[in-house]
Amino acid sequence: MVGKFMAKVIAEIQDWADVKLRRLCGRITPDQRMVVILVMFVVFGGLSVYMTVAAIYNIGKSDGRELGIEHIDPIRLKNDSIINPFNNQ
Predict the structure, then answer these.
(1) pTM metric for this prediction
(2) In degrees to the nearest 10, what's the CA dihedral of 74, 75, 79, 82?
């Protein structure tokens, strides 16, 4: 019951936002729309590049410590019939 109510509320919010956005976009000229799209493209593209470069730059850095590399210890297997089929213990 709560899921259906939440779905209805979300649908109403989406419809309201759609109407508002269509009214806003309907008021501007096609040239203004192109400018808005290009500005958004540059802003979001710049943020994407910044986040990518920042993530690559910070790889391995955590509180001033270097990324520690450790060797994997060998697994200690018990004497089992699968490991040693001729062991009759």
Answers:
(1) 0.46
(2) -110
66-75: long-range contacts, CB 8 A cutoff, minimum separation 24? none
Cα separation, 52 vs 47, whole angstroms: 9
The HSE-up count of residue 69 (CA atoms within 13 Å, CB side) is 1
pLDDT-based confidence at residue 60 (cuts at 50, 70, 90):
low
User: Does the pLDDT value for residue 64 go beyond 60?
Assistant: no
How would DSSP label each residue in the chain? -HHHHHHHHHHHHHHHHHHHHHHHHHHS-HHHHHHHHHHHHHHHHHHHHHHHHHHHHTTT-BTTBPPP--PPPPP-----TTT-TT---
What is the spatial distance between Cα 2 and Cα 13, in angstroms, rounded to a whole number?
17
Whole-number pLDDT of residue 42: 97
